[in-house]
Write a structure and sequence with these properties.
single chain, alpha+beta, seven-stranded antiparallel sheet, five-stranded antiparallel sheet, 18 strands, 38% helix
């Protein structure tokens, strides 16, 4: 193995020159993701700048059976990019060009290292927008690989709905294209969506065609408080049943709101369960949506409504929501965060959250809760003292109990974080015999198990 690795590194160095790094600091950067997971160093980090270079890197690794792990900007939360078996971390951040914007067809073709903010900056003058917003300024390749979603998926959909076509380098170095720019097709297996969510275990995404939407004429954001989480969730359920086309609807519990005020004192919101909301449409349409939502919220005794129509006020509000991870960590200085997410049918959301809050209390840990409640998805940030083995064990027990609660309510152990290494233990329980089929697909496409080994299956 060591001789094969040495030979592969020499070949990669010849191909990439200074764009192959074996320095410790660069390897450490690629040894972890955003969450609290055990790091593992790659043997080297490759920075290809074209599909052809990616294919060449993969062929070298395949010849010598060297593990490969695709890497975007490292914002994942379940250990997806950690090279637990060493090998080569393939960083696609230099493949960051917007190749084509098709305004009349509402789509764009991009390289995998393009970030969502970068794409929207380039779209600003067109009146179009890319809508999937996981909070972090992640790369679109990484977002597709993890089937990311975010705050406005309740209206615009997740990466599953917004990726039309892909170019992928397979584990043997061959290049395929899946899908087309057409909005529908009955032509063969849906390979595009096999790779969306595959977390780099089946190939490396080197080009994406994504859907765009028109920027709305009017946008209004708001926050409101509730006495209980049940009241907040029931307001969401009623609003959905009323057909209000909300663009974003986020739940933050009282513990999270306490952290928000510590992290951002200017926010100064009541430390009670909150909904953060946004409405898109025409001026008249937004006004009607707001009126309808407020009537639903009044049924459940909502209070402390604050409205934001100016761009800077809306941005400030959503930046506060995107900073929820760091705000949660401010509740316990010096803590590490064990994160988990799950997703259940909307009708089960209130009961699942109630059971989750009970499990948190039993654990004796602090765990703020936030959620994209419009689609039944919520997250826990479980705060633990670094190197405290007892707290870490309790945190993992709590996360496991929450995942199994979600399954008992007909849900999934991850709505958007993905599987990585963190959720792999629950896959057989969730998918049954279908999990065996996933393993067969992996074995067929990657028989030497060198593409992000140890993840998903």
């Amino acid at each position: 193995m060591q001789d094969s690795l040495s030979t592969a590194l020499l070949e990669l160095k010849s191909l990439l020159g200074d764009r192959l790094s074996t320095g410790v600091s660069m390897r450490e950067t690629h040894s972890r993701d955003e969450a609290y997971s055990t790091p593992a160093l790659p043997d080297a980090v490759a920075f290809p700048n074209s599909t052809e270079e990616v294919a060449h890197v993969v062929k070298i690794c395949a010849t010598h059976k060297i593990p490969m792990v695709p890497f975007g900007v490292g914002t994942s939360l379940e250990g997806h990019v950690i090279p637990i078996h060493g090998g080569i971390s393939i960083d696609t951040s230099q493949m960051n060009r917007v190749l084509q914007i098709n305004e009349s067809d509402l789509d764009a073709i991009v390289q995998p290292g393009v970030t969502r903010k970068q794409l929207n900056d380039e779209l600003r003058a067109t009146g179009l927008m890319f809508t999937v917003d996981p909070g972090a300024d992640a790369t679109l390749g990484g977002m597709a690989a993890t089937r990311a979603s975010g705050t406005n998926s309740v209206r615009y959909g997740t990466m599953r709905e917004n990726v039309l076509a892909l170019e992928v380098v397979l584990p043997d170095g061959s290049i395929i294209e899946t899908g087309t720019r057409a909005r529908k097709s009955s032509s063969g297996y849906d390979l595009t969506h096999m790779f969306v969510g595959s977390e780099g275990t089946l190939g490396i995404i080197t080009k994406l065609t994504v859907r765009l939407f028109g920027q709305p004429e009017a946008i209004m954001a708001a926050t409101c408080a509730f006495d209980t989480i049940d009241d907040a969730v029931n307001t969401v359920i009623m609003a959905i049943q009323m057909g209000i086309p909300m663009a974003r609807i986020e739940l933050l519990d009282d513990v999270q709101m306490r952290g928000m005020n510590i992290f951002n004192p200017d926010l100064n919101l009541p430390e009670k369960p909150h909904l953060f909301l946004e409405f898109h449409g025409s001026e008249r349409g937004v006004a009607e949506q707001v009126e309808m939502f407020q009537s639903a919220a009044d049924e459940f005794k909502a209070s402390d409504f604050t409205w934001a129509t100016k761009t800077e006020d809306r941005n400030r509000l959503w930046q506060a929501r995107h900073d929820a991870y760091y705000a949660g960590k401010s509740l316990r200085k010096g803590s590490e965060g064990v994160v988990t997410d799950c997703c259940v049918p909307i009708s089960a959301l209130a009961d699942c959250i109630a059971q989750t809050k009970k499990l948190i209390a039993e654990s004796g840990l602090v765990a703020p809760l936030v959620g994209h409640v419009g689609d039944g998805n919520f997250h826990l940030l479980i705060l633990v003292e670094p190197d405290n083995t007892d707290e870490m064990a309790r945190a993992k027990t709590l996360a496991s109990a929450v995942n199994r609660a979600a399954l008992s309510f007909g849900g999934t152990v991850t709505g958007e974080h993905g599987v990585g290494t963190g959720k792999k233990a629950y896959m057989a329980e969730e998918h049954g015999a279908a999990y065996d089929l996933m393993a067969k697909l992996k074995q067929t496409i990657d028989p030497d198990n060198i593409m992000n080994p140890g993840k998903v299956v």
